[in-house]
């Protein structure tokens, strides 16, 4: 079963660092909880305080982008609306606040429909407002229509997200059962498969863990499908999920997703799985990712391993591992003898990045090969593609 107490304590342990005076600790702490499905509206409000405080040093990172998919509670909804009403449309933050509204729960959007009308497409808002009044059969028909359009025409994020809202209504009504989320690639195709995977995560359906794992063995699978499969496994988050992910975690090119699952499930079992995988692989990129995810688990057991790996040489194109181990030590209260050395190195990397001339990108980066959402961004930033040019 899910270690709810352990996971809630993890959030309680990390969230205060959103307000750290150390910009590297602050940035890493917020990223640690991103995509964990453990945070609530109060965590978002803490993030908003961090944003309002502004930069604590020249190395500070923008906070709002990391808050984009944190849930809003009623207080958060009121705060975002108030900010939008007080900001000029030309201000950068406006786009982030509007996206936060667009991501809000259906119930909140309906309750505050008059307040959000100036910021969300009226037609979309009407579609959202009618969902609670639809019968279950009508909701299934609406979802079928969404899937048809997504399978037939170009991908539309707003349309895809609306389909997820429909699923939320069906789950709330108790209409999604274990039988409805059997994930068979031979029987389901396109967005019907993707939404079925999403449903499995929403109802935390343990019986389909093995079926989800089979998706990662198909290296031809679409990135969106693999991303939703990873999200579903994180939501399920049980010891069984961790054990099954570990078995295929280093398989082919999908390890960007499987290792990400183990990094986002905050549990002792996930930490131990990552430690075992660290010892099993010689792949420098995989080992770099595992090291970072161990630090995101706040693993003290991993620190000597990662320290030795730093000396051997890691994949510097993926991330700055000195930052990961530095923050891990700071948040664990470990006065490591190399702490200052790592801090100085991070500052030098950041300073070089600040000194570089920005590249103006007028169109998406074109590459010969398809870029996965969790792959390194082809622009060379070192960030994941989904957090950069995507």
Can you offer a commentary on this structure?
The chain has 390 residues and is mainly alpha-helical. 59% of the residues lie in helices and 0% in strands. The chain is built from 20 helices and no strands. The chain has helices spanning 4-14, 23-33, 41-53, 74-86, 93-103, 106-111, 113-116, 122-129, 136-152, 157-172, 190-202, 209-216, 223-236, 239-248, 255-264, 268-280, 284-296, 303-312, 321-331, 339-355. Helix 10 (157-172) packs across helix 11 (190-202). It is globular and about 65 Å long. 34% of the residues are buried. Residues 360-370 have low confidence and may be disordered.
Give the radius of gyration. Answer: 21 Å
What is the assembly state of the chains in this entry? Answer: single chain
- Largest pleated sheet: none
Helix and strand sequence: HHHHHHHHHHHHHHHHHHHH
Mean pLDDT: 89
- The rough form would be described as globular
Helix content: 55-70%
Q: Which ranges are low-confidence, i.e. pLDDT below 50, for 5 or more consecutive residues?
A: 360-370
Spatial gap, N to C terminus: 35 Å
Going by helix content, strand content and strand pairing, the class is: mainly alpha
Number of strand segments: 0
Q: What is the count of DSSP helices, taking H or I runs of 4+ residues?
A: 20
Share of β-strand residues: under 5%
């Amino acid at each position: 079963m899910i270690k709810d107490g352990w996971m809630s304590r993890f959030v309680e342990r990390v969230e205060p660092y959103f307000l750290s005076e150390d910009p590297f600790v602050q940035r890493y702490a917020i990223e640690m909880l991103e995509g964990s499905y453990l945070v609530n509206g109060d965590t978002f409000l803490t993030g908003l305080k961090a944003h309002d405080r502004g930069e604590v040093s020249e190395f500070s990172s923008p906070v709002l982008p990391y808050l984009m998919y944190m849930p809003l509670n009623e207080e958060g909804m009121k705060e975002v609306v108030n900010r939008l009403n007080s900001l000029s449309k030309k201000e950068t933050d406006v786009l982030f606040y509007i996206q936060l509204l667009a991501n809000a729960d259906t119930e909140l959007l309906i309750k505050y429909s008059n307040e959000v009308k100036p910021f969300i497409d009226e037609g979309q808002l009407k579609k959202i407002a009618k969902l609670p009044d639809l019968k279950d059969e009508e909701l299934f028909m609406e979802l079928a229509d969404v899937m048809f359009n997504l399978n037939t025409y170009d991908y539309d994020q707003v349309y895809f997200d609306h389909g997820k809202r429909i699923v939320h209504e069906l789950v709330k009504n108790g209409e999604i059962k274990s039988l409805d989320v059997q994930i068979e690639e031979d029987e389901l195709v396109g967005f019907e498969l993707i939404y079925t995977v999403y449903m499995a995560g929403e109802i935390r359906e343990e019986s389909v863990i093995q079926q989800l794992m089979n998706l990662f063995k198909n290296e031809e699978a679409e990135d969106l499908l693999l991303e939703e499969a990873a999200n579903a496994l994180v939501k399920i988050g049980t010891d069984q999920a961790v054990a099954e992910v570990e078995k295929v975690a280093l398989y082919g090119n999908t390890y960007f997703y499987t290792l990400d699952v183990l990094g986002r499930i905050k549990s002792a079992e996930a930490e131990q799985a990552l430690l075992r995988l660290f010892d099993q692989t010689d792949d420098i990129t995989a080992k770099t990712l595992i090291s970072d995810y161990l630090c995101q688990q706040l693993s003290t057991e991993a620190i000597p391993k990662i320290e030795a790996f730093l000396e051997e040489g890691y994949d510097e194109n993926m991330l700055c591992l000195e930052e990961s181990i530095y923050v891990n030590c700071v948040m664990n209260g470990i006065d490591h003898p190399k702490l200052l050395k790592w801090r100085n190195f991070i500052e030098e990397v950041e300073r070089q990045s600040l000194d570089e001339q920005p590249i103006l990108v007028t169109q998406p980066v074109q590459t010969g090969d398809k870029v996965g959402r969790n792959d390194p961004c082809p622009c060379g930033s070192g960030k994941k593609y989904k957090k950069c040019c995507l």
